[in-house]
Amino acid sequence: MSCSKVVLITGASMGLGRDMAEMLAADGWTVFGTSRDPERYSPEGRQMLALDVTDDASVRACVQQVMQRAGRLDALVNNAGYGLSAFAEEASVEEIRAQFETNYIGVHRMCRTVLPIMRAQGHGRIVNISSLAGLFGTPPSAHYAASKHALEGYSQTMRFEVAQFGIHISVVEPGLTKSAFRENVAEPAEPLAAYDRLRTHLREMGPRSEERAHPSIVVARTVRRVLRARNPRLRYTCTPLDWMAAHLRCWLPERAMHWIVRKVFGV
Ligand SMILES: NC(=O)c1ccc[n+]([C@@H]2O[C@H](COP(=O)([O-])OP(=O)(O)OC[C@H]3O[C@@H](n4cnc5c(N)ncnc54)[C@H](OP(=O)(O)O)[C@@H]3O)[C@@H](O)[C@H]2O)c1
Predict the structure, then answer these.
(1) Which of 8, 19, 22, 36 for mutating ligand 1's site (highest number of atoms within 8 Å of CB)?
(2) Which protein residue has the closest C-alpha to ligand 1 atom 15?
(3) Region of residue 2 (left: phi > 0; alpha: psi -120 to 50; beta: else)
(4) Going from the N-terminus, what domains does the chain have, and what CATH number goes with each?
(5) pLDDT tens digits for 100-147?
């Protein structure tokens, strides 16, 4: 049984989740990370468990293992996710379902499984990794943005419901961050030729955007900040630029926001 605080981080094999796991382990947490293929990873300072957030039995088995090994669960970071890089019209219903199965329903599966444990403990923290796309979508990721908007609404509402049990819900909203995310995006099975000009333009922009992406460590620092806070807020951005982007959306008139996006994305 563990005497240090215990955190479970979904999707900790690479990218943002791996950085969070390393940073929280260095901060004294007992860290459980997950992967669909945990045998491929043997990180120091944390235990890797098998987890596919789209599978009920896998979620139950993963949380059971944490409880068997550590006897408690103080925090859950719902980080596992991927992007569907498809224009709104060209994504099939199956592709949209798969996007929501991981990014939204997967988070709900995790919450539904850990909340009884946290309620019994009388405390707990859940940090959901959303995105600036959860506040404002840009092409070609309408369904990714929709899944993260859903996650925002879910987290904001659940925060009211579980506060009475001593459980805090927060969302972290990273902007463009360096990771394998863009290599792991799902492409539409049936791309529409009508969008080829825009697709090519956005692909050409890719390397420049990648240069502007911030290092994944800034997201890990933000998650650590949420977990250290006495009274964590609902929403956290990760850099001053992301904070500005999140707030411009509220301050600027709709037309101005659209003008900026059209200029930046060439639409
Ligand atoms: N990178 C960005 O620019 C950015 C910006 C905003 C928000 N985000 C969000 O940050 C989170 C992490 O993304 P990342 O950039 O670190 O991407 P990444 O490098 O592609 O890592 C994705 C992680 O999710 C896990 N995963 C994917 N599908 C899963 C499933 N069905 N069940 C369990 N685990 C699954 C993967 O684990 P295995 O493959 O090992 O199973 C991997 O560890 C995502 O929620 C993403 O939407 C990223």
Answers:
(1) 36
(2) 181
(3) beta
(4) 6-265 (3.40.50.720)
(5) 999 999 999 999 999 999 999 999 999 999 999 999 999 999 999 999
